[in-house]
Write a structure and sequence with these properties.
The chain is built from 13 helices and 18 strands. Helices cover 33% and strands 27% of the residues. Helix 9 packs antiparallel against helix 10.
């Protein structure tokens, strides 16, 4: 079997590694001429780390990032709402890893080139069309030299929220959906806060600060610290003010008003945001869940299939779970079309539910609910919300997204290998 993968982002690269691990031949076509380390931080929950460990990359992942010890939720007026242990501190068999998106991509890209060969990723190839029949798939690309063609048994379109293949399958869908929130994000060398390995989320969907370390600092007592400032600047359903793009740079000089909406005693967040470093901005966008991802020998994973708001640390993680499930089915079915339908049947309902829950804040809906009931803050949290209600929100989301401790620590089914 031969699989053509479109896109060399996190989803496409881990799909190639998982397929190779199952003995399936594949090649990746990436539209960019050069694969650079764009973006800032992301969190990989233990369910995603488990799948990376399965292909022997846990050591590299741990070297690239930081395993956080705790997660803290806070009201935007400064009061603590919830504090929970993370990863192995919480009894998971695998760590949670906070890592720079570009460094994760580099770990995966290096592994692809080592295992599949230096030419496994073909850059400068922009997909323009595909055709399929009972014998296979023919993908057409444009490159610097003109047209190029690739033949395979399966086409996997891991080409992101602006997927060319999704646009071919659903030509009337339109652009991504904006919820009215703009995000500003950067990674800056900064003194440790909290435990030194804490994830801090302060404020609900309309005004939020997220801070966590993603690598060891160059000086003792410092970390490369990821921060994100999220503010509602438009109305849900408005057209996004710009294309969602990891590489769009912004100036933090104009963020004073947004910074002032957040209060926290955990760290000097204003100083962190103003400390410099490349800042990126983009609108918080997703797409409606699709009725199907698969047509014959062609399918979608990751952001091409289910782009979601960055709540609950699930964007890259769900793409990694897609890759594991897809490779399992392709290895266990003789008919590629049957394999892709089985993958879709497993993963589409789960990710559709995560997309919809993320629109309500995901597990961070705990913060939204507290702020709805006590917009000006509180003295006693118990007077605002029952701790059992908060646990139900967080644990219910974890169960739906496949991130609960019992799901992660459960032995792998025999057919998965």
């Amino acid at each position: 079997m031969k699989v053509i993968i479109v896109g060399a982002g996190i989803g496409g690269l881990i799909t190639a590694i998982r397929l190779h691990h199952k003995g399936i031949d594949c090649e990746i076509h990436e539209q960019r001429e050069h694969i650079s380390e764009l973006g800032v931080g992301l969190n990989m929950l233990p369910n995603a780390v488990k799948e990376v460990a399965e292909v022997g990359l846990l050591d590299r992942l741990e070297q690239a990032g930081i395993p956080p010890r705790e997660l803290v939720y806070g009201h935007r007026r400064g009061q603590e709402i919830m504090r929970r242990p993370c990863g192995r501190n919480a009894g998971f068999a695998f760590p949670q890893i906070s890592v720079h998106r570009g460094r994760l991509q580099r770990v995966l890209l290096n592994a692809v080139r080592e295992r599949l060969g230096p030419d496994a990723v073909r850059t400068g190839h922009r997909l323009v069309d595909f055709e399929q029949d009972a014998a296979g798939v023919r993908a057409q690309f444009m490159d610097t030299g003109g047209a190029a063609t690739a033949y395979g048994d399966v086409l996997v379109a891991a080409d992101g929220i602006h997927s060319a293949v999704r646009a071919i399958l659903f030509p009337d869908e339109g652009p991504p959906i904006w919820n009215g929130v703009m995000m500003w994000r950067a990674a800056t060398e900064w003194p440790e806060f909290g435990t030194g390995d804490s994830v801090l989320i302060v404020g609900g969907t309309a005004a939020k600060l997220v801070v966590y370390p993603i690598a060891r600092g160059r000086q003792p007592g410092t970390r490369l610290t990821n921060w994100a400032l999220c503010m509602r600047t438009g109305r849900p359903g408005d057209p996004p003010p710009q294309r969602q793009d990891w590489s769009r740079r912004a100036d933090t000089a104009g963020l004073d008003e947004q910074i002032a909406l957040i209060q926290t005693s955990f760290l000097d967040h204003a100083g962190l945001i103003k400390a410099g470093g490349e800042c990126f901005e983009f609108p918080m966008c997703d797409r409606d869940p699709l009725p199907y991802w698969t047509r014959g020998r062609v399918t979608l994973p990751g952001d091409a299939a289910h782009p979601m708001y960055p709540m609950g640390s699930n964007g890259a993680g769900q793409a990694i779970l897609d890759a594991a499930n897809l490779s399992d089915h392709l290895a266990s079915h003789t008919d590629p079309s049957d394999a892709l339908r089985a993958y879709q049947d497993d993963r589409l309902p789960v990710t559709s539910e995560v997309v919809l829950r993320n629109r309500k804040g995901g597990p961070e809906n705990v913060i939204d609910e507290v702020e709805r009931r006590a917009p000006d803050g509180f003295t006693r949290l118990e007077d605002v919300i029952d701790p059992a209600e908060m646990e139900a929100i967080v644990n219910g989301y974890a169960q739906v997204s496949g991130a609960s401790k019992d799901q992660v620590n459960r032995p792998r089914p025999a057919w998965n290998g």
